[in-house]
Amino acid sequence: MKGGLKGAIEKVEKFSPDQGTIGKVVNYLESLVPKYSLVGDSVFFGNDQFPWSYELEANWQVIRQELDQVLPYADALPNFQDISPRQGNIADDDRWKTFFFCAFGYKSEKNCQRCPETAKLLGKIPGLKVAFFSILAPGKHIPEHRGKHKGIIRYHLGLKVPQPRENCRIRVADQIAYWEEGKSLIFDDTFPHEVWNDTDDYRVVLFLDIERPLRFPLSTVNRTINTLVGLSPIVQLAKGNHESWEQQFEAMLK
User: Fold this and answer.
1) pTM
2) In the chain, where the domains are located
3) pLDDT digits over 113-137, tens only?
4) What GO molecular function terms would the record report (predicted)?
5) Model confidence over 198-243: pLDDT tens digits?
6) CATH architecture of the domain with residue range 38-253
């Protein structure tokens, strides 16, 4: 791709929401992130780099109380691949359940109404792109994979973390981390990572994707790319799948 960052911006502005085209530009922009990132370029990040994380931690028990109202319906919640079929390569069973609040411009009004305090807290987070309860059943292993866009930062808030600690863990690059209830885990998901829940209970985190803080003009490019991702066929399919599940879930509750 010629023309440097200016050329990239011009190309982004002309894009239709075609996933292949977006992917080509995303790949080019990856190399620019270390230079423009306001939070550096590392595997893990600290709370100080994302100050809003402190309010989530301070209110984690409020979020947990609303989660506890959802968990009795765990079997009826959608599997990750039921919402986003592209996840089928890492989720092909019924042991990774989801409870979505929002994703790239789509908002689940019903789920937000079921967890109003969580929804209020999410509404305060700058650059929020994706939010859901990520629920791993006992024995679930998510094989190694990596995110495709370095313009996104992954965030987990531990809500329900079974013991023993060493049996419930995540590896990112060559580093092992453990969730703690009420604590944040923030990382760059473009590094290869995998997850284990080798316990006899559910592991649940509040799973967020956040726009990486970047200096201008890459911040504008990144925001445009994320908007286009929201218009892409992949996200539109996931939106339709989630709306279908909501209708079925509402009917079940009546």
Assistant:
1) 0.91
2) 38-253
3) 999 999 999 999 999 999 999 999 9
4) dioxygenase activity
5) 999 999 999 999 999 999 999 998 999 899 899 999 999 999 999 9
6) Sandwich (2.60)
End-to-end Cα, the chain, rounded Å: 55
The structure tokens 């550096």 sit at: 40
At 245, list the tokens.
């599940």
Q: 7 falls in which pLDDT band (50, 70, 90)?
A: low
